[in-house]
Design a protein that fits this description.
Shape: globular
Strand content: 15-25%
Distance between the termini: 70 Å
Order of helices and strands: HHEEEHEEHEEEEEEEHEEEHE
Helix content: 10-25%
Radius of gyration: 23 Å
Largest sheet: 9 strands, antiparallel
Length: 300
């Protein structure tokens, strides 16, 4: 009887080993992207893309009118009326945000843009009206999370609301205590761990596609909340322009993977179940902030 059990166990072990050896190897995220068709990628929309010029180079921000149409339109006006010229990066708080705008002590009047807007914390019918590639994994802050176009998002099927989530590189509108005190003149981007409790508390307007290193590698402010205490510490912003107003030859040659594409789903799952020589254990899970569609330079 003992010999029979040992023989059965040996056969079972051999069977498991053979099955493992025969199982097809899952493509890595890089392999998925390398095999992707060009049609699954798109260039940033020129009318929705800002170029912010800093001493160290250009930051590219794609705006999200689907989530904050009024703020985005106000920001277009601010850019076209050259309001951002002469503003500064005024705050860099470690593991939190980099913030820019006009310092409080030198307010700058606006032309046709408005200095106060009603908040756009959520899209009231967003669960139905916005594209949404739902992640299969649970989230700690929302009933459902996923990708809407190229932006990390959440939604509540019961209320019908949808909103963008605070992830690395996401751009938000600075405001004071009054809910209508934001306009898009004062902005920030997340440079650290995702501060998801800010979701639905601040209007989010876009995502940095290129130049994050210009915002994350700055000296940290020594004042309260990371504000620079001395004028000379502030980083000047020379211009902020819409890509649509920049000659095509001077536009950034980048493209971003559509979150509604077949390639995105394959890439997302390759990250969820990644297991290779280095990733020896597949997690079987991905956080929405680690699932944002990648950006790549355009070849040629």
């Amino acid at each position: 009887m003992r010999l029979t059990l040992l023989a059965t166990a040996a056969l079972l072990a051999l069977s498991i080993q053979a099955t493992a050896e025969e199982a097809p190897k899952r493509a890595t995220p890089a392999e998925v992207l390398a095999a992707s068709p060009a049609t699954d990628w798109r260039a940033p929309a020129p009318e929705n893309t800002l170029y912010m010029e800093l001493p160290g180079g250009r930051v590219v921000i794609e705006l999200a009118p689907g989530f904050a149409p009024v703020h985005v339109e106000n920001m277009r006006k601010l850019a076209r009326e050259n309001w951002y010229e002469g503003t500064f990066i005024v705050r860099v708080q470690d593991n939190y945000v980099t913030q820019w705008g006009m310092p409080d002590e030198t307010p700058k009047p606006m032309k046709t843009a408005l200095d106060k807007l009603a908040p756009e914390f959520t899209v009231k019918d967003g669960a139905r009206s916005l594209p949404f590639a739902k992640l299969p994994d649970p989230d700690a802050y929302a009933p459902e999370v996923g990708i809407s176009d190229i932006f990390p998002a959440a939604r509540d099927p019961k209320s019908g609301e949808a909103w963008m989530t605070h992830c690395y590189g996401i751009v938000g509108v600075g405001r004071g205590m009054p809910l209508d005190s934001g306009s898009g003149a004062e902005l920030y981007t997340v440079i650290g761990h995702s501060p998801r409790p800010l979701d639905r508390v601040i209007t989010l307007v876009g995502r940095v596609l290129k130049g994050m290193e210009l915002l994350t590698a700055l000296p940290r402010g020594t004042g309260a909340l990371g504000f620079y205490e001395k004028v000379e510490q502030r980083v000047p912003i020379s211009t902020v322009r819409l890509a649509a107003d920049v000659p095509e030859a001077e536009r950034e040659k980048i493209e971003v993977l559509s979150g509604q594409s077949e390639t995105y789903t394959k890439w997302r799952d390759a990250r969820r179940f990644r297991q290779d020589d280095f990733f020896i254990r597949a997690s079987g899970h991905v956080d929405v902030c680690n699932a944002m569609p990648p950006v790549r330079p355009v070849k040629g």
